[in-house]
Amino acid sequence: MKILGIGSNYVTDLKDIEEKKKGKKFIFSKPESSLAVNCDVEYPSSITNELIYEVELVVKIGKEGKNISKEEANSYISEIAVGIDYTATDILKNARETKHPWEFAKGFDGAAPISSFKPVSDYNLEDIDFDLKINGEEKQKSNTAYMINDFADIIVFISEYMTLQPGDLIFTGTPALGKGEIFKGDHLQCSVNGELLLDFKMI
Question: Are residues 123 and 133 in contact, defined by beta-carbon separation less than 8 angstroms?
Fold first, then answer.
């Protein structure tokens, strides 16, 4: 299984999308061992003191594809979930300064909490609301209409470089506003179209 993600993929104003599309896409990866499915997550205090959350919709690939066309791209999505992309920011800053890879900042155990998956047929991909509440307070909220690169764009781009296979997961970007630091004891709740799908604590 590949777990891939795209950086900086949402805007706050729809008129900014076309200009932002001209920028380079940034893809990163996480190992399978970073997944935490519908369970509490242990705060990785042994490796970081600065953990940043980003809520994201996660798509699961349902069939194998390479050099996928834009017209066919969405047909490769079988299911959708909601998840958190955790980043150990202190590790990331050090990696950038030393020009080393990011794997330890993005790929530690528990760095990718996700909900159970639901069939893609349950959703209109161009109009999905999702949000994150921490300790009952809304921190992030957006809709897929505000994506710079939509699901199909991401799949097309990734498949130029690597074959996508059934079960591969793609974190598709976080809302442009609201990401921030998470702490031990925090309670996170993520909803999609108003339905609570992910509910866990940092322990």
Answer: no
Tokens of 189: 């709740």
pTM, whole model, 2 decimals? 0.96
Grade residue 111 by pLDDT with cuts at 50, 70 and 90.
very high
Is the per-residue pLDDT at 137 higher than 90?
yes
What is the identity of the amino acid at 203? I
Q: What is the residue-wise DSSP string for 150-165?
A: -HHHHHHHHHHHS-B-
DSSP annotation string for 53-66: E-EEEEEEE-S-BS
* pLDDT for the residue numbered 48: 96
Looking at residue 143, its amino acid is N
Q: Answer whether 108's CB lies under 8 Å from 90's CB.
A: no
Q: Is the pLDDT of residue 20 over 90?
A: yes
> Is there a contact between 16 and 180 (Cβ–Cβ < 8 Å)?
no
Alpha helices in 89-142 (DSSP H): 89-98, 103-106
Q: How confident is the model at residue 98 (pLDDT cuts 50, 70, 90)?
A: confident
Provide the sign of the torsion angle of the four alpha carbons 142, 48, 115, 134, taken in this order. negative
Cα–Cα distance, 48 to 70 (Å, whole number): 39
Q: What length is written for the chain?
A: 203
Q: Which residues pair with 1 in a beta bridge?
A: none
Give the separation between CA 113 and CA 198, rounded to whole angstroms. Answer: 9
Residue 194, CB half-sphere, CA atoms under 13 Å: how many? 1
Q: Are the CB atoms for 3 and 31 separated by under 8 Å?
A: yes
